[in-house]
Amino acid sequence: MQIEVAKKAGHCFGVKTAIQKAFETARAAQAPVYTLGPIIHNPQVVKVLEKEGVKAVKNLSDVSEGVIIIRSHGVPPRVIDEARERGLTVVDATCPFVKRAQTLAFKLVEEGYDLVLLGDAAHPEVEGILGTVGNVATVISAAEQTLVLPRRRRYGVIAQTTQSLDNLQQVASALLGRTHELKVFNTICNATTALQIETRLLAERVDLMLVVGGRNSANTTRLVEISRAAGVPTQHIEIADEIEPAWLERVKRIGVTAGTSTPDWIIQEIVQQLQQIGK
């Protein structure tokens, strides 16, 4: 049984930076440390941070003092303002690609474009971008949804950083017929795009794909979709103990990929478990 791990699988720059900031803050702080929501969409990493004294909370109202870390997905600017008004120390761990998406969204609205945001409306990154522009954007998840949009003189488009380039291109093409002027910014994370391409190519040459990452992770879910679209049996798992030996029957080649919020140590445990079962 051969095991091939995608070379670009696992933590991207933004996630690594966010986690590093969280650990450094926990070690240096003389007050309670919190993250506003999970710092990344990976339950195992969140548990490790909890052991270091970093607690995830849902709302600012749950924190009366100490340090609040803004997670990698970002938040609306008003949230940071409110945290400071409450006397909290703010550590901003927003991914640079998310920051760029927020900045470009604001720029488009300021210039008079009707903003279309390609992404998952319930995702915290999208909520943060919406908050940056005063919730005046229209959120869609697929090109078909442009058919119900009104014709406008100027449309501007950005994407959630974990979207696929194909989806963004389809939306842009669909909007061309509904406006006189279209401005599109590719706000998709470079690491996300590269990982999606590598995952597709890997899926095409193996008998089974294991996609590792949090089930609440948008970019991990996207990798599952890409693998299944390649026609290969695909399993989405978070930890090594979820691997079922029955999956490996008559399988000669296994591909392993992982979302950008998945740490290397979890990927290594997956490979070790596969090797043990293979014996």
Provide an overview of this structure.
The chain is of the alpha/beta class and 279 residues long. The chain folds into three domains: 2-10 and 191-278, 4-hydroxy-3-methylbut-2-enyl diphosphate reductase, catalytic domain (Cobalt-precorrin-4 Transmethylase, domain 1), CATH 3.40.1010; 13-95, 3-Layer(aba) Sandwich (Rossmann fold), CATH 3.40.50.11270; 97-188, 4-hydroxy-3-methylbut-2-enyl diphosphate reductase, catalytic domain (Cobalt-precorrin-4 Transmethylase, domain 1, 3-Layer(aba) Sandwich). The chain is built from nine helices and twelve strands. It has helices at 13-28, 43-51, 77-85, 96-110, 124-132, 165-176, 190-203, 218-229, 264-278; strands at 2-5, 33-36, 54-57, 67-70, 89-92, 114-118, 138-140, 152-159, 179-184, 208-212, 234-237, 253-258. The strands form three sheets. It has a four-stranded parallel sheet with strand order 1-12-10-11, sandwiched between helices. A four-stranded parallel sheet has the order 3-2-4-5, with helices on both faces. It has a four-stranded parallel sheet with strand order 7-6-8-9, sandwiched between helices. Strand 10 (208-212), helix 8 and strand 11 form a beta-alpha-beta unit. Helix 4 packs parallel to helix 5 and helix 7 runs parallel beside helix 8. It is flat, with a radius of gyration of 20 Å.
